[in-house]
What does this fold into?
Amino acid sequence: MIPDFLIQKLEVQYGKEIAQKIIEGYGCKRPVTLRVNTIKATKDKIKEVLNDLNITYQEVSWNKDALILEGAREDKIQELDIYKNGEIYLQSLSSMLPPIILEPKENTDILDMAAAPGGKTTQMAALSGNMAHITACELNKIRAERLKYNLEKQGASCVYVMEKDARQIDDFFSFDQILLDAPCSGSGTLDATNPKMSQIFTEKLIKKSVASQKALLNKAITILKKGCEIVYSTCSILKEENEDIIELFLKLNKIEIVPIKIEDVPLLPVSIKGTICVAPNELYEGFFIAKLRKN
It folds into this structure.
């Protein structure tokens, strides 16, 4: 059951018609999607394995390394050698967008501020040919261990794990690129069939997320080199966790928007031009992304 307060928020922000489509999106069962880990394998090799197993798949126009599997079960894919060897990574399509939008470069210092379990971190390593210098931050010890396990499995040797609250990083650090996939309420990824949703998804959770998002983005701007870029993302579709956070720093003239151009992705309306909010549907989870340049 979707909590009444969320339905109300969605209707106020998007209008009843779009809100209804979002609620329908919460009820969709999405297919398994994977990213080929180009540090260890080629897409042709992975397609060959899938063809041999009679697993059908679709390509993704905006991501040459992604495949949508048709009728495959996640637990069955996890039994395959290509999964066990780290040649593929099971990842939602929406969560593959932020690293692609950041465009991680070789020989640059990159910070991943909330890295575990490591899907986006390993994707950035692969996109840079394993040649960037990535610092992956994770406060929680158990999650940090999971992150280290995934990095090793994926062969992402260019990543250093910092067990620290990213809000407490010393200001003498400086980075060329930052990915801030901020902790959020998860309002874009809700499962309408979850009977415990009203216990998990609360107004208190949104307020806590907002406080954390402001502090993290403020820190990100402080330790980013001038003229360099941050990608801010959340798996929330609520303005208070997205545009409202960005707006604070735009007003202070600390950042400017770098417009995002992406095709073939279902989008919701946004109040800041150049940012995107992915609509939850049968293929995608709800996700907000902004690319920001430090003034």
